[in-house]
Amino acid sequence: MNIIQELEQEQISAILAKRGVPEFGPGDTVKVMVKVIEGGEADPKDKKKKKDAKPAAPTFRLQAYEGVVIARDGGGINESFTVRKISYGEGVERVFPIYSPFIAEIEVVRRGKVRRAKLYYLRGRRGKSARIVERSDARARRLNAAWKGFKKPKGEAEDLTQIKGIDADLAARLKQLNCFKIEQVANFSDEDIANVDEALKLGGRIEKQDWVGQAQKLVATAAVAEAPAEEAK
To answer: Between the CA of residue 218 and those of 163, 195, 231, what are the distances in Å?
Structure first.
């Protein structure tokens, strides 16, 4: 492995630490959540704007793009996939780099059964002739039965960044799995640890950084702090 491949692998690992990439291919229907930047610096031609006024900080919103994957191209950090959908009777295609920082999530909605690696023939088809049969083999059932997350707990989300090893991005990914309470982490079973580690591609960080032990200490500290308050009442 040369220096360029090593740098590319580091960038891929950095992206995978923030979000996962599911297994999908041509014929599958996917929903891509794209980060759209809003706000920021105003139009420089706007004369009403004061010169000393500070530009507003840019904000992000998520935009869903759902369609059929018709191709996957490239390899490594340059790998991309093409998604086609029908919008108001017109075919629209969009190419997404798999490891783009502007993709928040890729969700596989439906798995299709196809015999080709490139589905460009769909461009000339409409209606029933453009439909793709859903896969129902053992591999598709295994992928569809993959662990999706926890049952959503009651209450407000807590600050998981109190646990060393969990940053804001990782906390957001855990929240997508309905894990947003410290007590949940404290009660992780071996199966939960394996599921979370595989879903988020953590490489064993949960056990190496002792998330469960840290969470148990935080829960115990919170319980001790609540006890005097109850006695005072």
So the answer is: 8, 23, 21
